Amino acid sequence: MLHFTRWKMIAILTVVLVGLLAALPNLFSKETVDSWPSWVPKRQMVLGLDLQGGAYLLYEVDRQDYVQKRLRSLVGDIRKAMLQEPRIGYSGLGVQGQGVQLRVRDLSQLDEVKKRLEPLRNQLATSALGGTAVNEFDLTVGSDGLVQMSYSDAGLEQRIRQIVDQSIEVIGRRIDQLGTVEPSIQRQGSDRILVEAPGLDDPERLKTLVGQTAQLTFHLVDTGVSPTADTRKPGTIVLNSTDNPPVPYVLEEAPLLTGEDLTDAQATFDSRTNEPVVSFRLSSAGARVFGDVTAKNVNRPFAIVLDDKVISAPVIREPILGGSGQISGNFSIQSANDLAILLRAGSLPAKLTIVEERNIGPGLGADSIRSGKIAAIIGTALVCAFMVMTYGVLGWIANIAVIVNVILIFSIVTILGATLSLPGIAGVIITVGTAVDSNVLIYERIREEYRAGRSAIAAIDAGFHKALGTILDANVTTLIAALVLFYMGSGPIRGFAVTHAIGVATTMFTAFTFTRLMVAMWVRWRRPTKITL
Amino acid sequence: MAHLRIVPDNTNIPFMRMRKWTFPLAAFLSVMSVILFFTVGPNYGIDFLGGTVIEIQTKDEHPNLGGLRSKLNDLGLGDIQVQTIGADNSILIRIGQQAGGEDAQQAAIGKIRTALVDQAEFRRTEIVGPRVSGELASKGTLAMLVTFAAIAIYVWFRFEWQFAVGSIISAANVVIMTFGFYVVTQHEFNLTSLAAILTTIGYSLNDTVVVYDRIRETLRKYKKIPLGDLIDRAINDMLGRTVITTVTTLIALFSLYIFGGEVIQSFTLAMIFGVLAAIFSSVCVAAPILIYFGVRQDQMTKKEDVEAAGKA
Asked: Model-level pTM greater than 0.90?
């Protein structure tokens, strides 16, 4: 137990040295580390939002909202399909629960109905290779003429997955435009997106940029009827403006243009009023449509609608043929800027709601770190003093081993790029507890063997031999617990499990190699014949 | 140089005879904890109940708390709790779950922000929506159960089934009593508390296995001595270690408690309790359980022979 070959010694000391080097950058500020020569390790620990401050936003796709919107557009598609020549007569077309239903009048046309609606089932590509394609909708055509198209569970699930993927892309583009923060955007489960922005002080701007659907549409306004009247034409909708109090408008439901027809958007100032506005440029197809419509509707107002709110309703003074225009709507410089970013990055495919939000100001995180450090230093000093009082020289060895152990934990956390959070620090503390315990186990065992009549060196040898078995069993048990928590847990549980698992591993490493090596070196140097423990 | 010895050598404390009252005590505390858990219930934080917590620091060093309270109550957001934490101008505001789904929570915090933005800095806001809060509880419980199962299997392979069951019962006892601690003290139970509970599970398992390892070794050494005396011998032999380790762990935890700042204070208090419960549980629950389950000493012998043969 006390014999080490030269190579083993070198290997152990190399691991410890590499650990020290890897942990070293954490002692210095980011600026200092950046100025170091390139061959020195520079990676620093990633601090969790609870320590560093920042925003944690968990979004969820609003299924109900999405399904309702999607089904409404399906109703439109079905109506169009039925109106093709030869027309198919139907009644009662509308949204029913998770689907759309209608009744076909002439039962002899059922086969034709099936043929026309089949393409609307919308085959979705599955992400998994070799996975079978899923249809978004199930189609049932009853012999009594009742036709139903409804979401299948697999279809809706797949659709939501796609929405999450698209949303992550859109959010990424939006945040890129912001430039200052570097948030991480991740899928969580099947229908959630986690946005984490470390170091961000004010989350409100991030929230406007991430969470807004930013669905832009242009509609013609029907000025011939009052918004409160029952005589609205079919195919029109009433939407409120963003004014306070809101002004209702009657709009044609089918949009002239959507945000997808835009190729560019920029925040500028209106040349006459000097107010912040957003200028946009249309694609060539969009420009043609816009030119035609504006030529036909001079002196009628059209509405610019963002997420079901009318942001402005200018009157068309002359045909707009150039394919560019501007949106004015009581913007501040920042809100004009934000809208331009949103329009450039595209709209979200569905509404996202925040289901969990945590914002920690940087001041609070810094306070936590500061008091944590003070407590750690005092705690370590007291534990070290106690160990030296109890074990003398061997106590010093134990202290060095525990400190090396903690440094190794931090270096592995640094190398892996894992995040250190407050629960993670708890994991380190409990490791210090078990690491001290491993030394105590060894020393108490040595003491016991010595009192049982062995010579000093034989007792040390036997003490290590027997205690290491115990340490192995105890630590493997805790390691299993930590690993299970790591794989099953999320957030704080995972933050705890990471450092705890690493800590158990380093505890075993130091107990089996480093502590043993140090004790062996001490034995070789002092040749103890008596043990005073 | 004379070293500090807290525990004298050659102690002979009859732990197993003491089980007549330590065992019922452990059972009583556990049952009480369960009863209190279901009757009184822990003081759940927003992580499990949903709701909003805002921590602000007012620019005024000694703000008028009553004025602040009535200003917030005027917003009509239901029950609002306002309390200072630490310094006079560090204020915690809690509002309950707002009716109307996730968007309503956002609207509520918007109102508070507008009301207070001129007079305070927002240090922390946490909003947990109704859907997430339920999941956190169920996920945490599931993680704990799977951990228990995995540990039981490992201990069963390394020891005997009696040890596996014993270590789980002992760890469960610690968890239940720590829950009880949260109910009795009414410290807020949140995700950090969950981390504290997980830590005590880790500590408890570690400690139980250390005790079991020694019991197994003693079982192999002395085959003729009655099981109860054997276990006593094992525990007494390592009493020095148990006490020294407990003292060092408590030193570390108490310095965290005193100097570690507000945020982790209730967390460390729970851990201090948990560590004590873990030590009590491995000596007074995990060890005597082996007697009730009737660990057969000949099983140990066989295994040792196999191990010896393997090493040869």
From this structure: no
